[in-house]
Amino acid sequence: MARAVLFDRLGGPEVLRVEDRPVPEPGPGEVRIRVDAIGLNRAEALFRAGAYYEQPILPGSRIGYEAAGVVETGVDGFPEGTEISTLASFSMRDYGVYGDRVVVPVSSLVRRTVDEVTGASVWLTHQTAYGALVERGGLRPGDTVLITAASSGVGIAAIQIANHLGAVPIAVTRTAAKRDLLVAAGAAHVVTLDSQDLVKEVRALTGGDGATMTFDPVGGPGVADLVEATAVGGLLVLYGWLGGEATPLPMNWDRQVTLFGYGNGSYVARNPERRRRAEHFINAGLRIGTLRPAVDRVFDDLSDIVEAHAHLESNTQVGKVVVRVRH
């Protein structure tokens, strides 16, 4: 038998349950993997709650994008025993990696050269930040990038990638509680929203110009301030809607800010050429140590999945939440 995390209704972390099921058999274009660690993501919490851009199929919905493990049923390019990570290139309506032995598309696999916790933490965060900042945004040395929700896994990845390229990362956080951690993560400057005026502070840090690029997963009414904090002719990348409110179009067109939405699955993970470049970029950063996922906490096993999801949504963490899978 295999263990799988499922849910039958929409709701909070408590709707998740672990069930014993027959070991799944892969079909055409699929592979079975033994999962050693899973990385939790906000997308999965939104999916579980019914707030994601696609809805789960209930009851018995699978969940999870990101895992590290070992191939059990070998296929071309990935023989049995190959250490792999999964990329978020599939729909959770079709697949989910929260389990100890799961089936995923072969196209979602990437060879793993790091430990399982790192392998379950790095790809979605760093591929999202790379695709938005580099492929879509064209970030260059000397550019300034304003990063909101900077203590998230993707936020930390964006800080690292900006530094890797010689750009200047300005981290935004709600309170001063995470300031020192963000500085330690590589932020050149930190703006705390409870005590500083975002627009005034960013303008001061950039000589009055504003940030070359702004990278935001929150959306909502705060986008108006983000436009004002972005340089004339700059870019504002929205890659999420954590605020849960409607995002109004900004009224100040004089700033000529280009605003675009970013989805990693369609833009990089399912685009062969961009994905190839992303893999080389991230693997190079892992080799030389400039890119490394920040892991906030590692839970012991699938039986901790409810507690792990509650921690994910607590907003107290800095970086990724990981769950090991015991066999």
From TrEMBL:
Keywords: NADP, Oxidoreductase
Coiled-coil annotated residue ranges, if any: none
Highest taxon, organism lineage: Bacteria
A family per Pfam: ADH_zinc_N
Domain annotation Enoyl reductase (ER): ranges: 11-323
SMART domains linked to this entry: PKS_ER
GO molecular function, one term: NADPH binding
Family matches, as InterPro entries: ADH-like_C, ADH-like_N, ER, GroES-like_sf, NAD(P)-bd_dom_sf
Protein name: NADPH:quinone reductase-like Zn-dependent oxidoreductase
The species this protein was found in: Amycolatopsis thermoflava
Taxonomic lineage from the root: Bacteria, Bacillati, Actinomycetota, Actinomycetes, Pseudonocardiales
